[in-house]
Every structure is written in C-alpha cells, then in structure tokens.
C-alpha cells in the first residue's frame, strides 16, 4: 500500500512542482517511510530531476529542494510503505525508480506487490539484467526497459516517447498487484492491473476560466486540488496516457471537454475483478471516491450493518480515531445509541499499523491517544474500530478507558476478522502476526480486556461495499477478501 501521484503541465502552467508536492502530502496516509519526486522538462530524453529521501513528505520535499523541479513539465511521486524487499532502509529502494533505456530515461512509481516476484526475478536475472534491489518495483522497471530495447528498431521515424506497446507487453507478463505511473521524457502513463486490486484515478486541474492547466493521476482522488475534477477511475487492465495534448486511453475513448482522444491498443481484463476491500475498511481517506462512491458513505454503511447484526445495550458509542469515525456514526444512527468522542488522537504521530516493526508500532500507540475522561466515567461504551490486526493497539486502548473510569467496554469491529496474510501490497507476511488467526473471538476478548467483542460479518462487509456500486452503471462489483477468507484471486508464489 503506497501512494503514487503524477502530473503533466498544459501550456505554460508554472506550479507543477507545488501541485506534485501537495498531491504526495495528501497521500501521506498510504506510506510514511520514504518519499520521492522525479521530473522531466518534456524535451530532454536522457535527464531527469530527482528528490528522494526517508521520512514524511514535509521532511523530504522542502522549500530548499523543491525549486529543483521548477520548469519541469511532467512529475511523478511516490510515498513508500514497504512490503517486498529486504533492504528497506536503503536509499536505492526509495521510489520513483529511474532506469535509462534505449529510448531515454523512464521513471516508475508502483503501488502494490507482485505475487510471483521470485519467479520473475529469476527470469530477469537469467536474461542478464542486473538488479540493484530486491524490490518488485525495480523488476517492473527493468522489464519495461527490456521491452523498449527489443522494440527500439521498430520505432525509428515514430513518436519515440510513446511506449504504449512496450507497456502492454510488460503488463501482460505481470501478475497482480500493481497500479503504476510510468513517465517518459514527454508523457505519463497510468496503469492498473487486470484485477483492479489497487485504486488509481485521473483528473484535470482547471483554471479560473475552466480551462485545463494540468492533468493528474493518483492513488486516490483526495490528492486532487480543489480546482480540479475527477475525470475517471482507471479501469482494471487499462493503460491511460497523459500528455500536454490531453488524456488518451488505450482501452476506450475518453471524451474531455476540449477534445476527443483515440486509442490504439486494447488490454481488456480476462479475470474476475479483485479490488482490495480493505481500501474501504482502512487504507483510503474518507474524502476519496472509489468505484464511484465516497469512502465515508461506505464506512457509515458498514457501521449501520454492524448495528443490525448486533443486540447490545450501552450508553454511548465511541470510536478509535480516525478512520473508524464514519462506522461509529453509522452504528450510532442505526442503534439509536448516542455517539460521543472518547479518545483524542495526536495527529503528529503516524499510523501504527504501517510502522515496519512491533517496537515502533507500540511506541506509536502510547504517543498517539489520550482519553476524554469526562465523557466516559461510569459509562457502558461501544468502542468501534475498523479492524484488529495484531491486537496491540486495542489492548492498550481498552486498558486506558478502564483506567479512566469506563464501566464497560464493548468492542465492535467494522470488518471481519483478519485471519490470512496479504501478498498483494500489505505488510502482513504470516498468519502468526494476526490475532484472529491465533485466537478465537472469546480469547481475543480476554486478551484485549474487553467485556465483549463482535465483528462485522463477511457478507455484511461485502453488501455494505457493493450497495453503492450497484447503483452505478460504470462499475461492476468484485473484491478481494483474501485476508478475511483465505480465498486468493491468483496462486501465490511463496
């Protein structure tokens, strides 16, 4: 689960570097380990500007170095949440990756994780390609470079920056999961795997007169500035080209309000859709649109469904800030139990779940939360959260509430138990780290110190997510629930 952002200037738009930096900052929730920007001036084929470093966007992309992106006409960026790759602390693992190819410099930003990395790595190495990291993202970059080299003789006299065919060849050789941004010297490509496992959307930044100033692609629409519009979500299996001339899909025609672009190559999915359902549960920001619906609306629906599945009597409904607020509001609305904030979250501490090890996660928990004592004393609390993964956070929070005077603490989790590891972009490598895989629900209740624990059912989650999609003619429901059910969309290369 990483954040990717890309933008292309139209005409003389001068604020592309600020647009890119702000876009990455808006996707900070998708990764906090490192950040990077790569920019092209749109003319020079063999040179790019690079800003990379470990830490948050605000620490990596500063007033001192953002000026290096002045005059760039295309910029892509990446916030890292590491999954594959042992050398996670190395600067060479920080994306976007840059490779020098037969047609010029190419940069990629990758969100997701290939399930067959081991096999693909062997193939690439046996073909004589050297790799500087063990990340699947670099594998993709090198496979694109190889496809370009094999086809470069056919490109003489053609549009050299157009690598649509090379990308289609590469993508057909890859297994899930990936959403990609690929930048050549004069254009940007937004690509989504045929399962649609990770989100990706395209939009337009508009001037005060309503004319396009830049085209943008991002993991989530929350990264788009206020003066922009969401044009569409990249469809599963689709490759979309963004350039100063407009937006062109290689799957189907997209009509902009200023011109119609055609397409040449089709890469239609021949697989069942498997959008990660945990994007709705936890990862995505409330104000993002995914599959044509607001994430907050889905989370509220999960809360209402959970209340319908419950029969608890309590005094107040509270939540673990911040992503579970919508579910708590939905639970409160359906149950008739008043909502009250019971915990305060320190906004300057990162998400504990996406910290890379247990020690860092525990330190983040202790720093992150404070109890609103006057709200909870002698109260029976329904504490709503979006998930319990390892259980460390919840155990600490229940104790904090009891110590502050809560009469009862009942946990209601707005997703089913996470029992199985994810191999498609989430850092849960084994079931040994998952509390629901190691304990029964009564055992979990005892471990965290709650009076009761209840989860949303799998059917309840799926119906809550797909309720809004079914009202839209543009999307077909299909979601990956592997971490909940153990049913993986594809065979896993362990």
Automatic annotation (TrEMBL):
Pathway: Purine metabolism; IMP biosynthesis via de novo pathway; N(1)-(5-phospho-D-ribosyl)glycinamide from 5-phospho-alpha-D-ribose 1-diphosphate: step 1/2. PROSITE patterns: GATASE_TYPE_2. It comes from the Eukaryota. The active site is at 2 (nucleophile). This is Amidophosphoribosyltransferase. InterPro entries: GATase_2_dom (IPR017932), Ntn_hydrolases_N (IPR029055), PRTase-like (IPR029057), PRTase_dom (IPR000836), PurF (IPR005854). Binds 1 [4Fe-4S] cluster per subunit. Binds 1 Mg(2+) ion per subunit. Keywords: Glutamine amidotransferase, Glycosyltransferase, Iron, Iron-sulfur, Magnesium, Metal-binding, Purine biosynthesis, Transferase. It holds the Pfam family GATase_6. In the C-terminal section; belongs to the purine/pyrimidine phosphoribosyltransferase family. It comes from Caenorhabditis remanei (Caenorhabditis vulgaris). Its cofactor is [4Fe-4S] cluster; Mg(2+). The keyword Protein biosynthesis does not apply. The keyword Metal-binding applies. One of its GO terms (molecular function) is amidophosphoribosyltransferase activity. Its EC number is 2.4.2.14. CDD domains: PRTases_typeI.
């Amino acid at each position: 689960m990483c954040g990717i952002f890309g933008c292309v200037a139209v005409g003389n738009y001068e604020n592309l570097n600020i647009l890119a930096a702000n876009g990455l900052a808006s996707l900070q929730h998708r990764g906090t380990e490192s950040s990077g920007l790569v920019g092209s001036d749109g003319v020079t084929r063999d040179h790019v500007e690079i800003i990379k470093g470990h830490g948050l966007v605000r620490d990596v992309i500063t007033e001192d170095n953002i000026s290096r992106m002045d005059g760039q006409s295309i910029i892509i960026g990446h916030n890292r949440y590491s999954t594959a790759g042992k050398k996670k602390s190395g600067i060479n693992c920080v994306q976007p990756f840059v490779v020098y190819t037969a047609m010029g410099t190419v940069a990629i930003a990758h969100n997701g994780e290939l399930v067959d990395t081991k096999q693909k790595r062997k193939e690439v190495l046996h073909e004589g390609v050297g790799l500087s990291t063990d990340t699947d993202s670099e594998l993709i970059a090198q496979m694109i470079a190889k496809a370009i080299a094999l086809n470069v003789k056919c490109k003489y006299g053609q549009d050299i920056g157009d690598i649509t065919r090379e990308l289609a060849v590469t993508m057909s050789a890859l297994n899930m999961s990936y959403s990609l941004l690929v930048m050549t010297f004069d254009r940007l490509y937004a690509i989504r795997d045929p399962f649609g496992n990770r989100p990706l959307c395209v939009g337009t930044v508009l001037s005060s007169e309503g004319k396009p100033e830049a085209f943008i692609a991002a993991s989530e629409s929350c990264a788009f500035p206020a003066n922009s519009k969401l044009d569409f979500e990249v469809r599963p299996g689709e490759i979309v080209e963004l350039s100063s001339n407009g937006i062109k899909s290689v799957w189907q025609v997209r009509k902009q309000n200023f011109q119609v672009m055609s397409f040449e190559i089709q890469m239609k999915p021949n697989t069942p859709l498997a959008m990660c359902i945990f994007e709705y549960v936890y990862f995505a920001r409330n104000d993002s649109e995914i599959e044509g619906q607001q994430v907050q609306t889905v989370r509220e629906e999960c809360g209402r469904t959970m209340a319908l599945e419950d029969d608890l009597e309590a005094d107040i409904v509270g939540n673990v800030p911040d992503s579970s607020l919508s579910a708590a509001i939905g639970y409160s609305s359906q149950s008739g139990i008043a909502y009250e904030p019971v915990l305060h979250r320190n906004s300057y501490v990162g998400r504990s779940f996406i910290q890379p090890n247990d020690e860092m996660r525990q330190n983040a928990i202790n720093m992150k939360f404070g109890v609103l004592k006057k709200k909870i004393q002698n109260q029976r609390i329904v504490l709503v959260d979006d998930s319990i993964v390892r259980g460390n956070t919840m155990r600490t929070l229940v104790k904090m509430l009891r110590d502050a005077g809560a009469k009862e603490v009942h946990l209601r989790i707005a997703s089913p138990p996470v029992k199985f590891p994810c191999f498609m972009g989430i850092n849960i490598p084994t079931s040994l780290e998952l509390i629901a895989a190691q304990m029964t629900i009564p055992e979990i209740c005892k471990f965290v110190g709650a009076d009761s624990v209840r989860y949303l059912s799998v059917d309840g989650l799926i119906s809550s997510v797909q309720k809004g999609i079914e009202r839209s003619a543009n999307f077909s429901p299909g979601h990956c629930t592997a971490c909940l059910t153990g049913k993986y969309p594809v065979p896993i290369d362990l």
